[in-house]
Fold this protein.
Amino acid sequence: MKNCEIVNYALEALKNKGAQKAQCIGTFSTTWEVNALAGQIELLRTINGETSIDMKGYFDDKMGGISISSSELNVIDEAAQSCLDNSKGAKVDATPAMNEEPVVKVFGTPAKEPDLEKMIFRTNEFLDKAREMYPNVLMRQMIVLYTLEESIYKNTFGVDITEYESVYSVSLMFSGFDGDLNSSFNIYGFTTKDLDTPFMDMALVSKNLAQAEKMVHTHKYPEKVVGTLLVTPHCLKDFLGQLMNAYASPNALVGGGSKWQNALDTKVACDNFSLYSKPLSENMAYNVHFTNDGFIAEDQPIIENGVLKGMFADHYTASKTGLPRRKSGGRFYTIPKGEKPLDEIIASIEDGIIINRFSGGYAGASGDLSGIAKNSFYIKNGKLCEAARETMISVNLSDLLMNIDAISAETVNDGSSELPYIAVKNVTIL
Amino acid sequence: MNVDILKPYLNGITAPTELRAHTNYANTIMITQGNIIANSQSDISGIFARTYKDGVFGASSCPGFSEEAIKTALKDAQHNADVMALTSKNKNYKLPEIPRGFMPAHTKFVKHPQSYLLDFMTQLDAHIANRYKDLASRTVHLIEQCTTVSLAVTDGFDVERVLPRVHIKIKLVTKDANGAPVDITGTLGGGGLFADHFKNPSDYDEQLDTLYNMLMDKKDGVYAVAGEHDLILDSALAGILAHEAVGHTVESDLIRGGSIAKSCRNQRVGSDLVTLIDFAHTALGETVPLPIYVDDEGTKAEDVIVIQNGILLDYMSNRFDAPLINTTPKGNGRAFNYKDEPLVRMRNTCIMPGKDKLEDMIKSTEKGYYLISWGNGQADGTSEFMFGITMGYEIKDGQLGKAIRDTTLSGVAFDMLKTVSMVGDTVKWAANGTCGKKQPMGNAMGGPALKCRATLGGR
């Protein structure tokens, strides 16, 4: 049975159980993984035919859902029955929750299996090169994945979307050492469409490894300062995830407690800051063409020239709150470059820190956020200084956006985001 | 699926091989402001096989429990091991011997009808709405999970394992004087079945009142003063300290990756009052929240005494790593999903209780903070740690003062544990955590209240 037939079968099974409205999302993937620990490859893993079928049925406007990992027809039949059972205790809620306009679309074509030999070659090449170029860096873990995936969305309103994607992804965990002394570990990763480029030359890999060697011997300034936080693209991605989750996600918005609940078309950031979610950008290593409520995905602005232009309210949340529906399914953050080169930004900072990794709490509804600046360096009088130890930063996400002082002329593309460095003033550093 | 069905497929295989049938069941109900946001179950099942050859592993998985899935997973695992063995740099490395046997399941999983659970959650939501009418928003979130494993191995213990846990998270939101949202989250439940923890929605009024009162205090809360302070960590925080700040640094993969704990064995890392154990299945005379009798590599589980009276004694390890770090495998090899290989994971990690009363610990503190609950935590190979603190109070002259806003606690565990000067007499367990380390994994953690010094973020 073809995958599209399996998803059709699941949708029909829900209808047969009495669902007047239903949607099914099938994801069918195979993944190959090369895994190295402590600088040595130790595992080759194949995840065959991974299947996920998310079924959601509305029975007299009562919703029941289930997710299964099998495409066997009897399992799907049981799952449809579970949806019906699940719906029985649910409240009647007629709020629209999926695309009700018919659309049939196929994106991409089925991809080939990986060049496994080249995956292993590139992994060994990278490990050898890292040892040679950065002898004081220990590669704690390296994971290289190739995933090929077919995703299918179907609902009872005639929405039928198929997407084929394949992507390599690499994640690295490493630390610097000097004898028995070790630095904090750093984590860095990227995604790529092919294996044409050695991993050492991708995104900021080499720069991060070089920095790790300088992080073994750390320093802590005794005094608290209110200074400038220079956020690297990698760390900025983390902050943006926290920002959107706290202020702009369906969960934040549906309860009515988000700080951005009534902030559309108002100023929420400094004038020169814009933020987009671009799941269809050619600059990304892979794309996501539909949302999980059955709409064709589009690139969308979130903030333009400091003004809030969009959030991630799904169709249900949008219907419930009156907010506009999201156009993208989320993530794929893009921030246009600024005018100042990074070196000039650093030279202009009197007192501050460049943060590579944030180890901190999750921002609650208030947007308050504090945590440790990991893999980070002090900046004093315009110059990069010692690596920071046990240094905490405290910010509020709203203040962070309003206090952006500079955006770098350089951006970094890691395959799923394209972001500059940003400098934020008036941050408490201890 | 059971071990008896899996075992014959291993006949004739001489290389160390695991064959695992694995199901993760999860049930989620989330109600926000009376709206059912989530009402779904997931049932993820499949076969995993792993073969060891010449210093490397080959692994493979297939969804479902069909004969084809079993044969494909085994064949691919052996093929992958053969491929990797060609370039292995550890060809002569042998896995350590482990005892053989069979361990049956210790419990059964019982599902309630979804309509019963929905009804319970709807009543709980209505109960909260009626009891606390001035909230800006409320969310009740049920997470019911059960992992079922049948593991057959060529050497080691075969095992049947059923591991359920259930939690209800309650998030309350209010607004402060400036109209800015302030929230707090509490968790009910633990290891075991729904019926072990939940009967009537009104049974939790005491916990709900405490949560609500803390929110009202937090609404008028102040920012903590950033810096190093005397701290009383509630027992809920001692658990995350045990897991995050210490536990991760003594996992064998981190030891091999350069963790500071590598050079601290048999050395003092805490005060005499600190003893920390990763329990397998029984602690303080009772079954722990998430008991592991045999891990996912077929190793019969034993406790790991990590720190005894302040001295670092042992590490947690999987079978491969144990000889490399001079210890024996004690059952810390655990896999999250059917497709996952076992990693070195904690089980039920706990700081042992002392003799002090919480009230006396607060009274003994002239100036500092009492920290009650946390939102997340992260560790580092340097033993530097951080926890997001979601509730706490100032302490002034031995008395609780104003509540504090969300902040972060950080320190270097092996320095901070040396400052522990009082240890509470009551252990509290939490089994709702999910640890992220390549794969997610359910863990339990526990401990008593501690008095110590560490750094708080703030303004």
Remarks:
- The mean pLDDT of chain A is 93.
